[in-house]
Design goal:
32% helix, 265 residues, 7-stranded mixed beta sheet, two-stranded antiparallel ribbon, alpha/beta, 11 strands
């Protein structure tokens, strides 16, 4: 009975755990944004945090949702965005990862994530994690059923500083299973004079890219994970400028021969 009680996490007036934009869009590009929102349901009482912490990067990827929504509109591309904080449960981590429901994030304790029961963990997974991933899977399968080959693009953002060190990249392009799809995009962004991270500031070969590895890799979909520096996209003007850049380069990528073939496992 504990599990049934724990499962009541969303009130009727609270949002669905994902946002689906333009599901019938004509573009072969398929956008996801794992850390789009800092929403915490009332039932979790703000996770015991000072509300100010929910405006920080520990709660969501600042600016990533704004860029993703603009891209979906300008490219006529489908997009699936999370509508829950990564502190509730991180949709871009394996469920057995210690950071899936972190008790501490960037040295900030998260009281509401300590000592969770099995039922409490399952409630978050069932309410948020699984519906978000089902939305991605369902939308992908519908497009594959029409004979299309989606190009999977995961949009994230990263902090300008980490442990006192400046992170110099304007944008990172992360990849796994070979970089033949990522390489043209890295080179095109570099020709713009941008400082581009090739599997920086994180590597696409590790578990941080769970969503891409879970959905795109098994299907052999062309795939890239983008990391935008947060101070470049934390205003409307910045998000719009970067969406314009990415619209051009992702449109070009969609016509590249490497993006028209399935990738190797």
């Amino acid at each position: 009975m504990e599990l049934a009680a724990d499962l009541a996490l969303l009130d009727d007036d609270e949002p669905e755990p994902f946002e689906l934009i333009n599901p019938e869009g004509a573009s072969p590009l398929f956008l996801v944004c794992d850390h789009a929102s800092n929403f915490v349901p009332r039932a979790l009482q703000g996770l015991g945090l000072d509300p100010a912490y929910l405006s920080l990067h520990i709660a969501y990827d600042i600016g990533a949702a704004a860029v993703t929504r603009r891209l979906a509109a300008s490219l006529d591309a489908p997009a699936v965005l999370s509508h829950f904080s990564r502190l509730v449960v991180d949709p871009n981590r394996p469920l057995d990862d210690a950071t899936s429901i972190p008790a501490v994030s960037d040295a900030i304790p998260v009281p509401g994530n300590r000592g969770l029961s099995v039922g409490a963990r399952e409630a978050r997974i069932a309410t948020f994690f699984r519906p978000y991933h089902r939305a991605i899977e369902t939308t992908l399968q519908r497009r594959l059923g029409r004979g299309a080959l989606p190009i999977f693009v995961s949009v994230h953002s990263f902090t300008p500083m980490l442990e006192g060190a400046r992170r110099p990249w304007d944008i990172g392009v992360l990849w796994d299973h070979g970089n033949r799809v990522a390489r043209p995009l890295i080179e095109a962004l570099g020709r713009r004079g941008l400082t581009v991270g090739d599997n920086e500031p994180y590597s696409g070969t590790i578990a941080f890219g769970f969503t891409t590895r879970h959905h795109a890799a098994p299907l052999g979909l062309p795939q890239v994970l983008l990391e935008l520096r947060q101070d470049l996209i934390d205003t409307d003007a910045g998000a719009e400028a970067w969406a314009d850049i990415l619209k051009e380069e992702l449109s070009a990528l969609a016509h590249h021969p490497a993006a028209k073939e399935r990738t190797g496992a």
